[in-house]
Amino acid sequence: MQHLSPFTCRRLNRLPKLISVWEGDRRHLSSELTSAELGEDSLQGDCILWVDGTQGIVRALSMVPDETGHESVVRTLLQAIEHPQGSVEPARPRKIVVKDRELQFFLRGALQDLDIEVDYAAELPLIDEIFDTLLQAGASERPSLPAAYQADLLEKAKNIWQDEPWYLLSEQEILAIELNQWDIQTLYVSVLGMADVEYGLLFYRELESLRQFRQAILSKHELSNKEIQQAFLSQDCLFINYEAEDSNFDLADASDSIRCDFGSIHPLEGLRTQLADEEAATLIVALEALHRFLKKHGHQLELLMLDPIESQFRIQNPVKAAVPKTVAVKVSTLPDITAELMDETETMVSEPAAASTIHDDLVPDGSLILLTQLSAEMIDDLQQSPKLYHQPFSPAPPAAQGIQKKSKPVPWPMLIIQTTRPKAKTLIEQLRSLGGVEALCFNPGSDPLNQKEFQLGLIKTQNGDLHLFHEYEMDNPTHAQALERWQTGQAKSQGRCGLLIAAGVSGAARGAPRWQDMMAFFETEAATPEQLDLQPLMLYYTVGLE
């Protein structure tokens, strides 16, 4: 049997000795209890507990694997003596009591130099009470979904996962679902997931709640954790979150291994993960109506600015023996609300960064960058199309005013960023939130160490930021020719150029976007580095000495 070292015994014996009697025990807890009561990071296995029976306080608690020996009980006891929980002072007990004979004999041998009496008792009332409380808490925890609705609700939620609405709608493109059932008139749906970070649906019971939440989040450049939590809990909504069963699995690639989490948030009630019967029935009907709407109008929802679209459906009432047997539901887009939320995002952007700062995180990963020219006829079609977002040039550069009237129409130099449809929509919203595109520019740079010259392709947004879209190496014939064609086209168009954002990068239209792939057209001008107060850039290397 191992004993404490003389050094440890001397250190512990210097601590004051209480008249208290401590109870100690080791019990097995289920994984559900360890995660719910002791935190997600707790080990599954046995719980070791030491409590002061006189004062009625827990001095130490630890989770250990099942296979660990009695040494772990001693370690937890030493923690209770030297480093107790809370504000309790370090101290030794007069006596400890356990209900396991083998453990009693082990502790007597291990603690023989600490002048602590080790006793046995068939019952440990205080520890029994603590563990009973944990067991009752686990047993009394209500399931998150009412049993009568669970299967139906999970099926409807999985259907929405298969529909992938986050690839059609951003969180600012709101849908209204009119129910007029279960004290709910209309639910306002915001879809999460276009950024491929978190997937879910928010069903706001009040439109004003959605507005207030967005205003709270966008009103400051940075929010404290407390402010974020306060804004989150001020919402009035039902929600569904989709999570992968395996935490190491990429949610975007998941299919059947999806877990659906449901709940409710209310300003007075806070976050609740158990749904009432009426809430479950509401979500079943709303999800089925949304599923049918997406199947019917999904192709129309791919456009950035939603047109007025609405459909009515009759959904089976999930409440047994209910009257009526079906529920009439209307689902509609809200173009005015969508425009309002997008405009709100634009006006609440953070202060512009310094003009010398160049950001390189605007263009989505995997995008294809094209420098080309578009004919005057194509430009006119883009300007007139109601199916894509259009930023007209205002004010027109003096040299270009009246050019279409006084001279033959000419092609414009065009920067095309081709990416996936959801990433294109996110990029468009980012540009809108930054005020739009002010100018395109190519700024020279050099790498003296490798004797290379390059040109940085930059997008300047209306808030003053500069964004890198590509680096062109001048010793690369393809890059050099593309820039030469751009400069020639820029001279012919007298400074007019454009940015075209398109989808289809992963399909047959890669490198040659079709009309249906074009999603946004920003008219702008070509600026010189001098006009933007830019200096030639030089690449420096820092040498680190080991």
Task: Tell me the distance between the termini.
Answer: 49 Å
With helices defined by DSSP (H or I, 4 residues minimum), what is the helix count? 14
What structural category arises from helix and sheet content? alpha/beta
Quick one: how many beta strands?
23
Query: Kindly state the mean pLDDT as a whole number?
Result: 82
Number of domains: 3
Work out the helicity level.
25-40%
Radius of gyration: 33 Å
Main sheet properties: 10 strands, mixed
Strand content: 25-35%
Which residues form runs of ≥5 with pLDDT under 50? 32-43, 247-254, 349-355, 396-406, 540-546
Shape: flat
Provide an overview of this structure.
With 546 residues, the protein is α/β, with parallel strands linked by helices. It folds into three domains: 6-140, Nucleotidyltransferase, domain 5 (2-Layer Sandwich), CATH 3.30.420; 147-343, no CATH class; 351-538, no CATH class. 31% of the residues lie in helices and 29% in strands. It contains 14 helices and 23 strands. It has helices at residues 6-13, 31-38, 71-82, 101-110, 125-140, 147-163, 207-218, 225-233, 277-297, 335-347, 376-384, 403-406, 421-433, 477-492; strands spanning 21-29, 45-52, 57-64, 95-98, 117-120, 175-181, 184-192, 199-204, 237-244, 258-266, 270-272, 310-316, 326-333, 358-359, 368-374, 389-391, 412-418, 437-447, 452-461, 466-473, 496-502, 518-527, 537-538. The strands form three sheets. Strands 14, 15, 16, 17, 18, 19, 20, 21, 22 and 23 form a ten-stranded mixed beta sheet that branches. The protein has an eight-stranded antiparallel beta sheet with strand order 11-10-9-8-7-6-13-12, sandwiched between helices. The protein is flat, with a radius of gyration of 33 Å.
